[in-house]
Fold this sequence. Notes:
The structure is a single chain. The protein is α/β, with parallel strands linked by helices. 41% of the residues lie in helices and 17% in strands. The chain has 14 helices and ten strands. Strands 1, 2, 3, 4, 5, 6, 7, 8, 9 and 10 form a ten-stranded mixed beta sheet that branches. The termini are far apart.
Amino acid sequence: MAMADGEVNIYSYRQPELIQPVIDAFTKETGIAANVLFLDKGLVERISAEGVNSPADVILTVDIGRLVEAKDGGVTQPLENESINQDIPAQYRDPAGEWFGLTTRGRVIYASKERVSETAITYEELVEPKWKGRICMRDGQHSYNIGLFASMVAHHGADYTETWLAGLKQNLARKPDGNDRGQAKAIMSGECDIALGNTYYVGLMMTNEKDPEEKEWAAATKILFPNAADRGTHVNISGMALAKHAPNKDNAVKLMEFLSSGKAQEIYAEQVFEYPVLPGAKVSDVVASFGEIKPDALPLVDIAANRKTASELVDKVGLNDGPTN
Length: 325
């Protein structure tokens, strides 16, 4: 990657095609060329190994766990920027300025349109007898689930969450397996009636021209936004951070200011079927079709602080072993 003037280097956990439209808009507006290095794993280790010679300017990633991992791994630097702080609500950024959320995705309930009459649900009620043998989910240790479970610890404490996870385990239809799309497939096939899943996967399935079967999975499910009547639905973020040794720091800050703007958030959110973090920013028609989301106001830094506890509780109750007879 070149380090000449007029460039900025992005290390991204997100697939290039998902971020390209917003990167193109940045280059068009500023004339600054953006180079993207996509890594599906090992991003923090890569930047650490490169040390002071790392060409990385900006880190783009999904999930609060990944952002905290970058901060704790010592590959980010704090940025105090009035423009960015105005565009990104405090609950979606690190108090020390080491990471910033750009879009959110809800951890919601996929429910069978045929077999589930409920129009409202809470996370807490997933342990009720009426859901016994009816719930599907992916690996309990997956970062998307750990984020949700960490939010339960933050709201209710570890003891409650342990009991809740044990109850959730007993209500599963099968061992946790597959990805979020796989849960929608399982609902369509009748293997289960409800499942935990991220909102944006529904958009990806609804618009999948390469694999039209996924459109059928999406069509068989409806989205229920848990806790809409009280604290709100757990959300996670896609976000950004300023790399520790950013060689093109001025350009990196310009990119981060652009990405946090309402215009860029809308482009990015539409591309990835997520919600802009800027209040009042427009959601795409596909995302609007899911229904209205009321995000849990809990600061993500509080959720991140409980991830380790959540992970330990998943193992303690044997969630991934599935229900015991």
